[in-house]
């Protein structure tokens, strides 16, 4: 008969990934890292935590094997250990959407009412890209755009949109996208563009969902050191 203590140890180990993600700030970190590699300092800014607190959370994810590190001089960069980590987070999110009471209300409290925002599906965007009659804006931070973006997309981080509005062709339909269903950058871009008299829509979901379906992705060429 097998040793029950060994089974207990096995099942405890099988839950280690879930335990590491059982914290909202660590889930935020995985959500950002799903876009691509980032430094500790960048991650701290993104989740509005101190570098020290962010480092502690990253160390917990590292011990669970969910992230990996790369040193560049004095800076430490983190990335997801494998695409499966992103799949785990997205699956957890989908389960919560189906089963957590009041999650819809909490989401609306954060992202606002999207009922008035035009939305374009991935299939619609692919068709428009083939026709070449749409302007696609990636409104995520530039490092995320460099790590991977929809082909032909223009990098206009949301904080720079107002200053660069004049660079966006007039008379064309604009589609903005960001990190996923709980990212508000694309919403803010569509509202700002609509207020300026532009025809604008947000892409359903975001870049991770586009990439997960193995749709075309472009990456910036690495600059030789």
Automatic annotation (TrEMBL):
<keyword id="KW-0805">Transcription regulation</keyword>
<dbReference type="InterPro" id="IPR051011">
    <property type="entry name" value="Metal_resp_trans_reg"/>
</dbReference>
<dbReference type="InterPro" id="IPR011991">
    <property type="entry name" value="ArsR-like_HTH"/>
</dbReference>
<keyword id="KW-0238">DNA-binding</keyword>
<keyword id="KW-0804">Transcription</keyword>
<protein>
    <submittedName>
        <fullName>Metalloregulator ArsR/SmtB family transcription factor</fullName>
    </submittedName>
</protein>
<dbReference type="InterPro" id="IPR036390">
    <property type="entry name" value="WH_DNA-bd_sf"/>
</dbReference>
<feature type="domain" description="Rhodanese">
    <location>
        <begin position="130"/>
        <end position="219"/>
    </location>
</feature>
<dbReference type="InterPro" id="IPR036388">
    <property type="entry name" value="WH-like_DNA-bd_sf"/>
</dbReference>
<dbReference type="InterPro" id="IPR036873">
    <property type="entry name" value="Rhodanese-like_dom_sf"/>
</dbReference>
<dbReference type="InterPro" id="IPR001845">
    <property type="entry name" value="HTH_ArsR_DNA-bd_dom"/>
</dbReference>
<dbReference type="Pfam" id="PF01022">
    <property type="entry name" value="HTH_5"/>
</dbReference>
<dbReference type="Pfam" id="PF00581">
    <property type="entry name" value="Rhodanese"/>
</dbReference>
<dbReference type="InterPro" id="IPR001763">
    <property type="entry name" value="Rhodanese-like_dom"/>
</dbReference>
<feature type="domain" description="HTH arsR-type">
    <location>
        <begin position="6"/>
        <end position="100"/>
    </location>
</feature>
<dbReference type="InterPro" id="IPR001307">
    <property type="entry name" value="Thiosulphate_STrfase_CS"/>
</dbReference>
